[in-house]
Amino acid sequence: MIDNVNQALSNKLKDLPKTPGVYFHKDKTGKIIYIGKAARLNSRVRQYFQASRLRDPKTDALVAEIADVDWIEVETELDALFLEAEQVRRYLPPYNILLRDDKSLSFVRIDIDSPHPTVSLVHQPLDDKARYFGPYFSAYSVRKALKFLRRVFPFDWQKPQASAKRASLDYHIGLSPGLEQGRTSLKDYRANLKRLMKYLQGGRKKIVEEIEKQMKSAAKAKNFEVAAIYRNQLRVLKSLNHQIIFSDREFMDLSKDAGLYELTELLGLKVVPRRIEGFDISHMSGTDTVASMVVFSNGIPDKAAYRKFKMRVPGNDDFAHMHEVITRRVSEKNVKQWGLPQLFLIDGGKGQLSAALTAFSEYSVKLPAIGLAKQSEQIVVAKDSVEVRLNEKFAKKIRGTIEESDDFYLVNVPHDSHLVKLLQRIRDESHRFAVSYHSILKVKRQTTSLLDEVPGIGPTTKKKLLKTFGSLRGVEQARDYELEKVLGANKATILRQYLRANKNGKL
Fold first, then answer.
1. CA separation (Å) from 413 to 35, 127, 410?
2. What local confidence, expressed as pLDDT, does residue 169 receive?
3. H or E element: which one contains 397?
4. The pLDDT value given to residue 208
5. Which of 59, 165, 262, 399 could be cross-linked to 55 through a Cys-Cys bond (beta carbons 3.0 to 4.6 Å apart)?
6. Model-level pTM greater than 0.70?
7. In the beta sheet, which residues pair with residue 109?
8. Is the peptide bond before 135 cis (omega within 30 degrees of 0)?
């Protein structure tokens, strides 16, 4: 029974197919507010409008906003799983995003440029040159999907131990590419992973066409062993129609949107902070000092909008560096290019927040900004802030307390509250991104100085080495024939001898 649905939508729901697919809930303005996947579109979408369906208040709020539904049909549950992630990443629907925390998200990581590439499932993407796909909302479903796809595109979950003398069971049953055993070349393995990545991006039909073409070509050339491999891959891909990946057992969990709601209420913000920017400083004894800017859109990281800054102010003065990065952030040029958030989150206490607010005043910027002190997880708010007006009544409601300290309020909220968890995720991500960038600069500086000392290795060759192997560690771990391919036999020998003799070359 379908209840409380306008006539146009009711008629549309009658046309829902029984196939797998991805559906799009829209509000009366046409904005996409929720995206979901379905093993059977007709039954899954109708669940939202059944009065007998037990729903939490947040789901009821979503259903009340639904004015239209669209969908995309796909052939398999697996296709629906990956298409859902792609569409959520593209449209950032509020009811998908606001309510998730980072622990509920999963990303597929593929370090294709590594000397021994691997595939893994992680919760947090890193700034490490690997390729990441997601976010996915069910780690179980993605892991199940990857196990199945491994039968088509063999890959390693982890690099085999150097001490391992025997080939693994995965190798013998065809799930591992056999890179160490010489069954597959590194070039062919990477080509295989590129196909896997294309599949994760929704390119199943093209991959099937490619494999069919290669199978026919191999058969025509009477290379029947290779043709048989392609034939088996096609069989597995076509069997996907009968594979159960999630089967609509999952239903929405909209209980985690409280973080943005609580933050808006506590700070007395005029609008929900759909875009929050977090800032942090990282250095080591005043060297290679950097700042990070991370962006959370509707509660999840928007990595394409991240920015990193090399500090121009010398030394290890965190206050001066915070003033510098905020000054550069609110410059006319960057505001024009990046826009502005609804909330600035400064990693630090009164000193760091004061530095940021000083930069605001110099550029006549009037936007909400708060600090998050590291040790006590206190929310720091300036007393004279017009944009942030603390709601004392709401603070008491969530068991929070407000203290005065000089020109600031220090807000203590239980660490298990939704808003603290949200702020912690943003702060931790800004810290991770800053440290990651700092480490890259440090390694680059060390790597550059070391390779500069190798006889016969000039700037062009050094650049070529780093581009090919990624880092000094990659150069060190490269096989002799790989180095010879880049440098030639003589230079490869010189480089190998130098690295082995130089203990400082170990990172």
1. 33, 31, 10
2. 74
3. helix 392-397
4. 86
5. 59
6. no
7. 120, 132
8. yes
